Amino acid sequence: MRQYVKLIRFHNNGFKTTPYNSTSFPHVMPFINYEVTDLEKVNAVVSESDFINPIKDDENWKGCFVFLEKYNKDLLNKGALIMRQGHRKNVAYWEANDQTIWVRNTSHTGKDDCYVNQYKEILEHDGQPYDNFKYISYYSSYYWVKMKIELALQRILLGEQHFGYIPEWLSECYIMDHQVKQFKTSKLFILREQMGRFLSLR
Questions:
Q1: Are 147 and 101 in contact (CB under 8 A)?
Q2: How far, in Å, CA of 23 to CA of 149, rounded?
Q3: Which of 17, 52, 73, 154 is a Cys-bridge partner for 31, taking CB atoms 3.0 to 4.6 Å apart?
Q4: What CA–CA distance (Å, rounded) separates 189 from 202?
Q5: d(C-alpha 159, C-alpha 173), whole Å
Q6: CA–CA dist 187, 70 (Å, integer)
Q7: pLDDT in tens, 127-155
Q8: pTM
């Protein structure tokens, strides 16, 4: 059965996509080529080559930041969204069965529990290679990891239960350009489609 999720974005340009690391608004937190499949598993180790730092104005990394299903309304008054105060609230619906999205590298229990915490680099000593393990920087909780959208919804639910509210990093995600193009901005479209499926089953 098709599952539609709600995406929310505060921006006068709607869901317009731009390169992640753009000249006009650069973002520097890397992506990690690692998919979370177990919400309880933290402190994973990846290879140094698993870090992805999109170059400036890279069209292959076009996308936009959205909130998945929920967001903390206080962010508009005294938080990270204060710069979007007065901007239009955009809502879209996405048939997201089995879709993979980018979420912050932070477990539902908080920033001290990152899904990926270390990386392995290969060094050489006396002509012999060896593995050297290093912790990611202090800002590792703001890096991005991959997650199926169904699991991301569970993470939001667990995080809200844990904190009693929804931190920005919990429901914020980065959606790629080709995925944004699948968005439907009319709830009426979804209702009509669901009604059509209901009638076809009768």
A1: yes
A2: 29
A3: 52
A4: 20
A5: 15
A6: 16
A7: 777 677 899 988 999 999 999 999 999 99
A8: 0.87
